[in-house]
Amino acid sequence: MNPPHTAGAHGSEDLEGGDRSNPSEPPASLPVSTRRLPEREHPLLGSLPAPPRAVCIICPPSFSPGAIVSAFVTLLAHRDLLYTLTCVRLSIRYKQSALGWIWAALLPLSTMCIYTLIFSRVARVASEGMPYPLFVFSALLPWIFFAGAVSAAINGMVGYSHILTKLYFPREIIPLSYVFAALVDFAVALVILGGLMAYYRIALSWNAFYALPLVVILLVFTSAVALFLASIQIRLRDVGVALPVLLQIGVFVTPVAYPLQSIPPRLQTLYLLNPVASLIENFRRVVLHGSAPNVPMLVTSGTITLGCFILAYGYFKVREGTMADII
Predict the structure, then answer these.
(1) How far apart are CA 229 and CA 222, in angstroms?
(2) Fewer CB within 10 Å: N-end or C-end of the chain?
(3) What pLDDT, on a 0 to 100 scale, did the predictor assign at position 55?
């Protein structure tokens, strides 16, 4: 017959080491991080194991269709983060601003006034029978969306460097949040366009609904350019310095201040390989003139946009693994 257990010479050792009869239980004196956490209790099922943690393995860069599709699925799973960062961008942009959202309309309006003074009063540029302020404003809206989104997105990765080096999430969410924030400004400016059309008594037709797929294609192309330039900006900061000059040139190689008919016919095919030029021309066509879009032009710009997005997104994901190391 075994004698009852009493606290003797080993009593303090037992108290410090815990219950020796259960070897699976770690000693109480160990750090908290090494103790086994208690299992959850369910009133009907009893104890349940803790849910497994999500594990993300950063693999070596690879450019393959499967990797691109997998990355895009992961991006869709983090769409709530994209929405949150987009809202943050909008709140920061107009924080402590007296005019607030009015700035989204003042920028295209002020640019419209300058272009009207120069190209309508001085240079006498044709406007396809439309009032020149309305003619140029309808093209300025998609161009300002494209230029503003790309300009803001390329510096976003550098601005969020303190987050990139500590947390993992799909890195493309940062430049894309700037693009979607610019899309909200574009929607606000569309209200001003509707007011100008009412002022000049230009009625909308059913063909104006074609503007929706045009804006979607422009959104995809803008995202492609933003992702590509943002991935380069991390390694080569000259991109942010040279981009304003490139955009200044780009506004004159797109039909913003002049009609497409001003381009010689032999150069129009090469000219319309620029998706922004094609989309701006079609946007003005369906909104102001009430005509159907140029289908061959639309198919060409859509095909180029899709190819550019796949290549730019794949290149961004290839460079993603080393961004936190060199930013």
Answers:
(1) 11
(2) N
(3) 62
Domain range enclosing 148: 65-326
User: From CA 233, how far away is CA 154, in angstroms rounded?
Assistant: 6
Residue 231 · residue 319 · CB < 8 Å: yes
Q: Does residue 49 fall inside a structural domain? A: no
- Tell me what pLDDT residue 236 has: 80
Q: Do the Cβ atoms of 78 and 173 come closer than 8 Å?
A: yes
Instruction: Domain count for the chain, please give it.
Output: 1
From first CA to last CA, the distance across the chain in angstroms is 72
CA angle 93, 97, 102 (to 5 degrees): 80
Per-residue pLDDT of 70-88, as tens digits, reads 888 888 888 898 999 898 8
- Candidates 219, 195, 191, 192; CA nearest to 309 is 219
Give a yes or no: residue 6 inside a domain.
no
Grade residue 161 by pLDDT with cuts at 50, 70 and 90.
confident
Closest CA to 312 of 237, 247, 242, 229: 229
The tens digit of pLDDT for each residue in 290-306 reads 888 989 999 999 999 99
As a whole number, the mean pLDDT across the chain is 80
H-helix or E-strand spanning residue 142: helix 132-154
**Distance separating alpha carbons of residues 44 and 301, to the nearest angstrom:** 60
The 3-state DSSP class for residue 47 equals strand
Q: Tally the residues of the chain.
A: 327
Q: What whole-number distance in Å separates Cα of residue 185 and Cα of residue 44?
A: 53
